[in-house]
Specification:
It contains five helices and seven strands; from the N terminus they run H-E-H-E-H-E-E-E-H-E-H-E. With 159 residues, the protein is of the alpha/beta class. The chain has one domain: Oxidized Rhodanese, domain 1, CATH 3.40.250.10. A five-stranded parallel beta sheet has the order 1-7-6-2-3. Strands 4-5 form a two-stranded antiparallel sheet. The longest helix is centred in the last third of the chain and has 11 residues. The protein is globular, with a radius of gyration of 14 Å. 36% of the residues are buried.
């Protein structure tokens, strides 16, 4: 398996300096799953009924930080301790119809890569949502200021 490009390189390749992205953007290729998509493209697919949004963050993250209304919750790891979720496969299969597509969201686009690879192993077409719900931290270590689902003004609610 080849080396995965760093998150910053994947974002630079998308050329997304502003929150408004064009609908014509395409997924970026990835190894081990269908590809990487920006938050706006993922939301476009979900709204059009072309994909199921699966939030792989912990229940605590969704409760404390916020959640996307209508997203299916299927934690990749459980809090506390970040142990693997033994029910992840079953939850994912229940959420995504046969032949369907999943777009996977985590905090910053890291756990969702692992979840997308697992979904692919299960026969599900799976895309990682770049930037995640909160995006990368800024120079002060704070999220939601440079990138992410919330930063881009997509639907979410406080937990």
């Amino acid at each position: 398996m080849g080396a995965r490009r760093p998150w910053s390189a994947r974002m630079a390749a998308m050329n997304t300096p502003t929150p408004d992205l064009h609908a014509s953007e395409q997924p970026l290729p990835a190894e081990g799953y269908a590809g990487d998509v920006s938050p706006p493209l993922a939301w476009q697919w979900v709204r059009a009924g072309q994909a199921v949004l699966v939030d792989v963050r912990t229940d605590a993250e969704r409760d404390w930080v916020g959640f996307v209304p209508g997203a299916v919750a299927a934690a990749w790891k459980q809090w506390p301790g970040m142990q693997p979720n033994a029910d992840f496969d079953a939850q994912l299969r229940a959420a995504v119809p046969p032949g369907g597509t999943a777009v996977l969201l985590c905090r910053s686009g890291v756990r969702s890569v692992a979840a997308a690879r697992r979904a692919t192993e299960l026969g599900i077409t799976a895309y990682n949502i770049l930037e995640g719900f909160e995006g990368e931290p800024d120079e002060n270590g704070q999220r939601n200021r440079r990138s992410g689902w919330r930063f881009r003004g997509l639907p979410w609610r406080q937990g």
